[in-house]
Amino acid sequence: MGLRMVQSNKLPPLRSIVFMGMGDAGCNPKHATEAARCLTDPQRFGFSRHRLTLSTVGPTPAAFHALAAAPGQLAWSLHAADADLRKRLVPTACYEPEVLRDGLAEAVEAHRCESSKDRAVMVAVTLLAGVNDQPHHAKELAAFV
Fold this sequence. Notes:
By secondary structure, the chain is of the alpha/beta class. The chain has a single domain (2-144), classed as TIM Barrel, CATH 3.20.20.70. Helix content is 40%, strand content 12%. It has six helices and four strands, in the order H-E-H-E-H-E-H-H-E-H. Strand 1 (17-19), helix 2 and strand 2 (52-56) form a beta-alpha-beta unit. 30% of the residues are buried.
């Protein structure tokens, strides 16, 4: 039904959908998951789960578990491996990056199944000049993930 609406209004085809930014998917995983299911349902929009991404700063390790059950790819907005720097960049951060990383790994493993062997997990980093853009920041991130 949704796809017919898009086609009948001659809207350009969507190539990808990313849940990111205000309204973090990890802060509302129940509804983000339901939206992802609706978008990937062949009887509704029939969007490919490979082209749908749920992004989160990872407010809690449990948020990763909830989002890992949704169709689509996961993206973690890490921004910095150093806990103090990440707290400056993500003021709402309540957990150490290591706790979140381990929670993400556990969530992906717990929800791994035959249909999701090829599921990607992306780590997003916004580089800010003079804040987290130095070579040592990149080395910290590489060692961290």
